[in-house]
Amino acid sequence: MANPRPSDLSDLRRRLHALAEVSGREETTAAFVAEALASLQPDELLTGLGGHGVAAVFSGPGSGPTVMLRAELDALPIPETLDIDHASFSPGVAHKCGHDGHMAILLGTAERLAARPPACGRCVLVFQPAEETGQGAAALLADPRFGALKPDWIFALHNLPGHPEGAILLREGAFAAGSAGVTIRLTGRTSHAAYPEQGRSPDRAVARLILDLINLPDRQRDPGRLALVTIVHTRIGERSFGITPGEAEVLATVRSDDDEVMAELMEGAKLAASAAAADHGLACSVSFSEEFPVTWNDPAAVRIVARAAGDLGLPVIEPRESPFRWSEDFGHLAALGRGAMIGLGAGEEHPVLHAPDFDFNDALLPVGVGLLEEIIQELIRPPR
Ligand SMILES: [Zn+2]
Ligand SMILES: [Zn+2]
């Protein structure tokens, strides 16, 4: 896979699709992206950022703001079921969120910047690792080399099936929900299944806890805010008919469009777990993982995107779902400057994200490159 060049974007996108690697293991993908960027001779090329992250900096001679654009390197642990020439080489792993397309769009934007560098300020193109697990953006922020890049403006786009192809979906304020995974472990004592009274089974505590967790959103004070708890997994004891279980696990995901409500739901889950454990004489531990903050769109950044889309004649629509219930770890990065997450309609009938039959819609590649270039134009290039 030598000499990747950004010129043919759909070919590039398909080669990235074939490379699919899961979060945190994006070594080959990062090397491919770094090689493609190196061929464009950016002013700076950083690799190994927060894991396998890559950033290219294109600087202008004059002083001006720093505009950061972000794409994601990772694929998902979902098998490729499509019979396509560019099918994933990795068993059980495929680009089912379209991050291959987002990378190709950013590489296309890099090519435009190489041909016509900014007149002032600088543009930083970031390819972040581990978006799907919510760890990559935080890892970037913990890397001092990334910290030195300090953007004034930051944008990311995501393809969105179920919306008109090529439409730009925008909203000020909460764009995508925050979420967190909750893992609750309950420990009692096993006994013979014939003598459950001799052990301490977590069965009743689990039954009560599931209901308490599902009902947590009903206790939220502001009904206008999104509050959602989804039970994702439970397990009690072992698959053995002779043993009264001595331990259990309950996993749930909490979501909200408000960081305060998120904190309340997380605290509520903790309290529900310790109350159920205490009432049934069990030990209990609660941990949180895959924490995504609410993705918050700055009004000024949204106006820039809307203007760029308007100049290109692209339809701008406000999504009906308010905000999107899924989460994005771009929320961590958006807080670095004035930021906006941009939705790019992938077609109303296009297979949904994370579905086995999803493949990125290549028709979006030129739309994405055009939009990002126009945003850069708005912010760091003087009028032609
Ligand atoms: Zn995804
Ligand atoms: Zn994604």
Describe the structure.
An 8-stranded mixed β-sheet has the order 1-2-4-3-5-16-6-15. Strands 10-12-8-13 form a 4-stranded antiparallel β-sheet, with helices on one face. The protein has helices spanning 9-19, 27-38, 99-115, 136-141, 144-147, 203-215, 259-279, 299-311, 330-334, 364-380, and strands at 44-49, 53-59, 62-72, 120-128, 153-160, 168-169, 173-176, 178-187, 191-192, 227-236, 243-244, 247-256, 283-292, 295-297, 316-317, 338-345. It folds into 2 domains: 9-174 and 294-380, 3-Layer(aba) Sandwich (Aminopeptidase); 178-292, 2-Layer Sandwich (Alpha-Beta Plaits), CATH 3.30.70. The chain is built from 10 helices and 16 strands. Strand 3 (62-72), helix 3 and strand 4 (120-128) form a beta-alpha-beta unit. The protein is of the alpha/beta class. Helix 8 crosses helix 10 (364-380). The mean pLDDT is 94. One zinc ion binds next to loops.
- The name of the CATH architecture of the largest domain is 3-Layer(aba) Sandwich
Per DSSP E runs of 2 or more residues, the count of β-strands stands at 16
Question: Would you tell me which CATH topology of the largest domain applies?
Answer: Aminopeptidase
List low-pLDDT spans: none
- Which ligands accompany this protein? zinc ion
> Assembly state here?
single chain
Look at the structure and give the mean pLDDT.
Answer: 94
End-to-end gap: 38 Å
Q: How are the strands of the biggest sheet laid out side by side?
A: 1-2-4-3-5-16-6-15
Q: In percent terms, what proportion of residues is strand?
A: 25-35%
Structural class computed from helices and strand pairing: alpha/beta
Spatial extent as radius of gyration: 23 Å
The coarse overall form would be: elongated
> What's the main sheet like?
8 strands, mixed
Order of helices and strands: HHEEEHEHHEEEEEHEEEHEEHEHEH
